Amino acid sequence: MNDDPLKPIYKRVLLKLSGEAFGHGGKSSGISLDETLVMAHQIKRVAQRGVQLAIVVGGGNLLRGAQFSAGLNTIKASTADYMGMIATVMNGLALQDTLESLDMPTRLMTAIHMDMVCEPYLRRRAIRHLEKGRVVIFAGGTGNPYVTTDTAAALRGREIGADILLKATKVDGVYTADPEKDPYAERYDRLTYTKVMADKLNVMDISAFDMCQGAKLPILIFNYKRESAIEKAVAGLATGTLVSE
Predict the structure, then answer these.
(1) Running along the chain, 245 residues long, what does each successive block of 10 average in pLDDT?
(2) Do the bridges between strand 219-223 and strand 240-244 make them parallel or antiparallel, or are there none, so unpaired?
(3) Is the pTM of this model over 0.90?
(4) Overall fold of domain 12-244
(5) Residue 162: strand, helix, or coil
């Protein structure tokens, strides 16, 4: 009997995808159908292994609210953040249709009401979708300005009772220094919440981190660009940095 080398070790997972994951070559330059399709294939394979998978999407490949916070100040910071939330819905729609083109049942839920294109976020309904084997995509952040998608991911992870928060990034974990600037920077394999706070390590914004720590929700920071990276992360095989108690 051949065991599945990518057998999941988690039952319910919250995956945080930044907007750049949808961009061309991982850059902030619109939506790449090829990049989105590669992600969708992995997501489908994970879901088909029985994992209840929820995804929080960013929108930085289309628009970052912070880009309007300087200069002429003709657009209020809160308005800019709402514009960024709408960008996440566009990415969510792209991912939803791509998954459904692969015959993967999917639901897009957003904290901002857009009833013509997606469902309003309701915690109980989201959990029910997961229990029925649907991939659930969360867009629109938390529906509030001045809140990052890291915080939205931590909040949704706690609300749905996720076993782990997978933070997909361009780097393969947390380092002692910026690996692009310091050739001697070393990667941590595992960290405790206390170590992250004591050393002021850049895992995610402080509000999101506090939320994960309070719920004892483990965080895995990994490089989504590596082959089968999401599948390996769910199987506990990904190279990256695991933050836990």
Answers:
(1) 82 95 72 93 96 96 71 80 93 97 97 93 97 97 93 97 95 86 90 91 90 95 91 89 92
(2) antiparallel
(3) yes
(4) Carbamate kinase (3.40.1160)
(5) coil
